[in-house]
Amino acid sequence: MENSIAQEDSGGLHSNERQRLFIRYFTAILVDLAVLNLFDEYWDKVVIESFTISLFTAVVLQVLLQSTIAFEHYMATFFKTKLQRVFSAWAILFVSKIIILEIINLAFGDNVLFLGAFHGLVAFIVVVIALLVAEKAIIKLYHSLA
Q1: Any domain includes 10
Q2: Whose C-alpha in 110, 124, 144, 146 is 20 to 30 A from the C-alpha of 6?
Q3: Domain tally, the chain
Q4: Which own/partner pairs from 59-67 qualify as long-range (CB within 8 Å, at least 24 positions apart)?
Q5: Over its length of 146 residues, how does the chain's per-residue pLDDT go in tens digits?
């Protein structure tokens, strides 16, 4: 995993793949948690009932976003031209946001609300983009410290 947040532990010893995955996803969930709570606090289009609900939401989002990316990569193998791969990736990534938003709605109901245009889809997409940017920024920062 090239973008993994942890290639070595603090003692300079190499960690195994399970440990690297744990640190990668644990860190991603904490970043997602921070981003979700910042949106909840500072943007009226995102309403999360409690810290505990935001933690569960961060875990669900991480699982669903990683599943979407894996599915998109899998589907890319079926298309021969770059245009087909780009279109399929765009379609999968866009439609998945609608599905993820509905899963969050079913799982948390009124405890997690994304408000505004298109029944909160625009606010949700803004939050997801912020989550991904924040995760990449943390990974980049981590690697710059080496």
Answers
A1: no
A2: 124
A3: 1
A4: 59/29, 60/103, 60/104, 60/107, 61/32, 61/36, 61/100, 61/104, 61/128, 61/131, 62/25, 62/28, 62/29, 62/32, 64/96, 64/100, 64/103, 65/100, 65/128, 65/131, 65/132, 66/25
A5: 445 554 544 555 677 889 888 998 999 999 999 999 999 999 999 999 999 999 999 999 999 999 999 999 898 888 888 898 888 888 998 899 999 999 999 999 999 999 999 989 999 999 999 999 999 999 999 889 88
Range of the domain at 118: 17-144
Spatial CB neighbours of 104, under 8 Å, sequence gap ≥ 6 = 57, 60, 61, 112
Nearest to 53 by CA among 109, 96, 114: 109
Q: Say if 8 falls within a structural domain.
A: no
**Is residue 32 in some structural domain?**
yes
Q: Where are the beta strands (DSSP E) in 7-59?
A: 46-48
The pLDDT of residue 76: 87
Please report whether residue 94 resides in a domain. yes
